[in-house]
Specification:
Largest sheet: 6 strands, mixed
Shape: globular
Order of helices and strands: EEEEHEEH
Number of helices: 2
Number of domains: 1
Distance between the termini: 15 Å
CATH class: Alpha Beta
Structural class: alpha+beta
Radius of gyration: 12 Å
Strand content: 25-35%
CATH architecture: 2-Layer Sandwich
Amino acid sequence: MTPIWLKETPTGIVLNIHCQPGAKVSKVVGLHDGSLKISLQAPAMENKANEMLVAWLSKQLRIPQKQIRLLSGQNSRQKRLEIWGSITPEQIAQILAP
């Protein structure tokens, strides 16, 4: 069963993420309003948190950064990202399980 924050689409897998910038360490901290809550070490300025989120997800999921795209939420804590490539929704859910 896929978690509420993950949705498979014809073009890829969409993740709903709630970011908490300025944390001591980047990690999944749980769920928030149907989104996966991730605390990020980066400050919330000049796209730094977005860049760090993509880099962190790329490392956790072991996929290239170019396979992760920010769909919405550039300047918001609520972000939607699309992931494509050779990874399944089940693998993502397992790796990022809170």
